[in-house]
Amino acid sequence: MPIITEKMIINEVIQKYPASMKVFNRFKVDSCCGGAQSIKVTAELNGADLAGLMTALNEITKGEKQ
Predict the structure, then answer these.
(1) What share of the chain in percent tops pLDDT 90?
(2) 10 neighbors 29 (Cβ within 8 angstroms)
């Protein structure tokens, strides 16, 4: 089961998983001005591959304590 979901707010994900900033940048997802929106909304606005983004974000959570 994914830890990070598309309904989560970008700023909250970055706060909990700082390495996610690199993933958002790689997918060209606005994590500054769009950071107060959900991952899904911002990814769609930026034309990012949502499925690929979610896979990459959840990859960074592997091995981290919850």
Answers:
(1) 79
(2) yes
| Residue pair 66/3 in contact by the 8 Å Cβ criterion | yes
Q: Which residues are CB-contacts of 47 (< 8 A; sequence separation ≥ 6)?
A: 28
- Could you tell me the residue ranges of all domains in the chain? 10-60
Calculate the CA dihedral of residues 13, 18, 22, 24 and round it to 10 degrees: 10
pLDDT at 64: 64
User: DSSP letters along 19-45, please?
Assistant: THHHHHHHTT--SSTTTTSBHHHHHHH
CB 36 within 8 A of CB 11: yes
Q: Rounded to the nearest 5°, which phi and psi values hold at 38?
A: -70, 160
